[in-house]
Specification:
Layout (H helix, E strand, L loop, with lengths): L11 H13 L3 H24 L11 H18 L3 H11 L14 H20 L6 H10 L4 H15 L4 H6 L1 H8 L8 H17 L3 H17 L3 H14 L5 H23 L3 H6 L4
Helix pairs in contact: 1-2, 1-3, 2-3, 3-4, 3-5, 4-5, 5-6, 5-7, 7-10, 10-11, 10-12, 11-12, 11-13
Length: 285
């Protein structure tokens, strides 16, 4: 892993975009480094703003957002690395941002948002640590805050796969919400977790020996990864399909091959102005 050099980067919007990219690439170690840099630069701007309240800000969002987002991302990276104690420490830093001064009335919803995220991520760590008794509470939390359902289901599927946790009742209880989300996967509040959710759903069905459904969820995830330009997920899902191939029906294999052919056709046309159809037909025009 290459260590990022962040000394010369002080633009908090650029650092925020870097954090999102690191998350998409599952680059957890660099995510921690970027989050620390974002928190440092946000803190400098915050204290400067306290002393110079009339100064104009040049960032896209209120400073309270960057202070919370940096710790949220750092905590998530620690969680992915199974460093749960350190993840909890991060949660404590964004669960109550009411200490931040100078927040406009119209921006105070950010305090509530991060409080909601903190509760959900606490449930996540509890489940990862084997505290399965919180699952019913967690499901009620997800029903109360539907925008957290896909991220929550990622956690629940991981626990079900790793710890043989029975979750059919969860899928039944959240079926209406999940169906709504699956019909609109490009919703910005769920997009970054959506392909991971479908991938884990596929693995869960494989573990349950429901092979047809496992392949179906894999094909859904593959299509979604292309729509959402999630290249990390795409590579993972191609490998997963090859693992599932022995269980796939012939029509599912044909759909998979058609998906890959369409993707290749699109890439060749975009990059080389070459058509697979013309190659097969021997047409060089």
């Amino acid at each position: 892993m290459d260590k990022l050099r962040l000394d010369n980067i002080d633009n908090i919007d650029s650092l925020t975009n870097m954090l999102k990219l690191a998350f998409s690439n599952e680059d957890w170690h660099n995510m921690i480094l970027i989050a620390d840099r974002l928190y440092e630069e946000s803190s400098i701007l915050y204290y400067y703003q306290l002393n110079q309240p009339s100064s104009k800000s040049s960032h896209d969002r209120p400073l309270i957002y960057y202070l919370g987002f940096s710790q949220l991302c750092k905590g998530e990276a620690y969680q992915k690395l199974k460093r749960y104690s350190e993840s909890r420490d991060c949660i404590l830093k964004y669960k109550d941002l009411s200490w931040v001064k100078g927040v406009d009335e119209k921006d105070k919803f950010i305090i509530k948002d991060f409080s909601i995220f903190a509760l959900g991520n606490t449930y996540t760590i509890d489940l990862m640590e084997g505290k399965e008794y919180v699952l019913k509470e967690y499901v009620q939390y997800l029903k109360q805050y539907p925008r957290e359902i896909i991220a929550g289901m990622v956690t629940i599927f991981e626990c079900a796969i790793k710890k043989n946790l029975p979750i059919e009742w969860v899928l039944t209880d959240l079926s209406d919400e999940l169906n709504t989300i699956e019909t609109n996967p490009e919703n910005t509040t769920t997009a970054r977790y959506f392909t991971e959710y479908l991938c884990l759903f596929s693995l869960y069905k494989l573990k349950q020996e429901e092979y047809y459904d496992a392949v179906e969820k894999n094909l859904e995830a593959l299509a979604s990864s292309v729509i959402l330009c999630d290249n990390t997920a795409f590579k993972k899902l191609v490998a997963l399909f090859e693992t599932l191939r022995e269980f796939a029906r012939s029509e599912q294999v044909i759909r998979y091959q058609t998906q890959l052919k369409n993707i290749l056709e699109g890439v060749l046309m975009d990059e080389k102005d070459i058509s697979l159809i013309s190659i097969h037909s021997g047409n060089n025009d």
